[in-house]
Amino acid sequence: MTPSPQTSTRRATGTRATRVLGIVTLVMLGWLGLFGLALSPADVDQGDAVRIMYVHVPTVWLAYLAFIVTAVCSALYLFGKRHSLGFDRVAGASAEIGVVFMALTLISGSLWGRITWGVYWQWDARLTTTALLFVTYIGYLAVRGLDGTRERRARRSAVIGLLAVVEIPLVHWSVRLWRSLHQEATILDTDLDVDIDGLMLFSLFVGVVAFTLLFVWLLLHRSRTIALDDLLADRGIDRAIAERRAEVGPSGGSS
Amino acid sequence: MSPGRIRLARRLAAKDLLIERRSRVLVNQVLPFSGLVMVVFAFALGTGGVLERAAPGLVWLAVLFSSLSTVQRSFGLETADGAMESLRVAGVDPIALFLGKAAALAIELLVLVTVLLGLAVVLYGTEPRAEGIVLLVTTAISATLGLAALGTIYGGLAAGGSGRETLLPLLVLPVAAPVLIGATRGVEAALGTDRTAVSEGWPWVGLLLVFAVAIGVGGALAFGTLIED
Amino acid sequence: MSAVLAMRDAGFILGAYAATVVVIGGFALWVLRAGRRSGELVDDEEKYWT
């Protein structure tokens, strides 16, 4: 295989569209910081602690969005007529993003909790469910890492991805039911009730929009990279086969 | 659900149970292990009131951990000589395959649950009460069905070596959380731990059944894809 | 700015924002860098977005 001339630098995963998207996202994230930390008012009850909400809620939103995209793409791969691997790649990329943002949710949530509850962790419905889902999707990524052909990986992950989405309500209900029945710990009221007024709502809105754009940006780059890696892996296999054939020699028979 | 499929599933389940009867892996290895786990819990928690209050949860924890080895054993049988692979290639209905393996697993786990509940009475001092018996039995069966379906799905996926078996706990435990929560609360209500009334246990049984059905149906449909290697 | 720093529990609040920036920024950089590394090994014709 002749190497391509080194004079041309090959393109990475960006295009003009993603560059524009990236810039818009950065600007909106900057606004989020501005509104969240400075322009929006403190909460009547929680004081400034409510500002964490402006990053915490968008990260939750993004994580769930990512996992839904994973599920939808898993279904489109599995039940589509052509079993297009493109869907599998998007599903995988989306899950990676979801896991990262779920981790961020746990971090920002526990910092928020530290202020409002005095403790980093509480066995309330939301935190517990988030932690369980976080581990569930780490499992999904682990399944994607198993060896096998591209199609096997896609099929297995698609099934696991769909099962994971089915689990979400089950886990959520059971944890909610569990935590609602045991009202002993009402000293620590875990209902982070925030009376949201106009400017706060706007700041939240900015956050959700910014993070949605961020999600699309990350998804585009990540799925393209996965496509490249798949291509390289396939080529690596082809090359290994070609080399092996060359070893055996023109006679074609092994010793 | 054709009668042929059910018959096939029953034959497959009988096969697994026959193998268990002959090899006695559940009886000789898994049961002692889970009994040991129950004893060791007492070392970790101390023998004060905590143990009796935690008893329902501890029983289901022991069941959960032991179920992992039971599942691995169940699928180890299949991969050892390529048994399941042969069945699959021969075109055996994967739904029947799933139902058969899940049924055998359910029976084995039910035996485990019964023994461990008995052990809890002996070791932790829990006392079952007459009005809670129906709830106790129903909880045990519903939870076991869910765990069996779960184990069969992920067991099918994780079987086959090359770093896959270690995946099983990571996949099973988060998904088993609703079962753990529901089964523990159901047994608590049946036993009256923390002055829980029997009536409080029935919503949990509902949850366990929804879980078992959802995972069972999903698993049956997905099994064919998962065991393809 | 001083008003922001003078918030009660400013450490935790700013910490949450900082963690968000660091994690997102780090992840984004990693994504871009992995993309660039793989992109150099593959001809542009084979990339479906070019």
What would you say this structure looks like, in words?
The complex is a heterotrimer of chains A (255), B (229) and C (50). Chain A is mostly helical and 255 residues long. Chain A has helices at residues 16-39, 53-79, 85-116, 125-144, 150-181, 198-248. Chain A has one domain (17-39, 51-181, 198-236). Mean pLDDT of chain A is 86; it is low at 183-190. With 229 residues, chain B is mainly α. Chain B has helices at residues 3-23, 25-45, 49-80, 83-89, 94-124, 133-158, 167-191, 202-227. Chain B is globular, with a radius of gyration of 18 Å. Helices cover 68% and strands 0% of the residues of chain C. Chain C has helices at residues 2-5, 10-39. Chains in contact: A-B, A-C. At the A-B interface, helix 4 and helix 5 of A face helix 7 and helix 8 of B.
List keywords for this structure.
heterotrimer; A: mainly alpha; globular; C: 50 residues; 2 helices
Oligomer: heterotrimer
SS elements, strand count of chain C:
0
For the sheet with most strands of chain C, the description reads: none
Specify which chain pair forms the largest interface.
A-C, 46 and 35 residues
* Annotation, overall tally of beta strands of chain A: 0
Number of helices of chain A: 6
Q: Domain count of chain A, please report it.
A: 1
- Shape of chain C, please? rod-shaped
Q: Helices and strands of chain C, in N-to-C order?
A: HH
Q: Structural class, judged by helices and strands of chain A?
A: mainly alpha
Helix fraction bin of chain C: 55-70%
Distance linking N and C termini of chain A: 27 Å
The averaged pLDDT of chain C comes out at 89
Q: Mean pLDDT of chain A, rounded to whole units?
A: 86
**Residue share in helices of chain A?**
over 70%
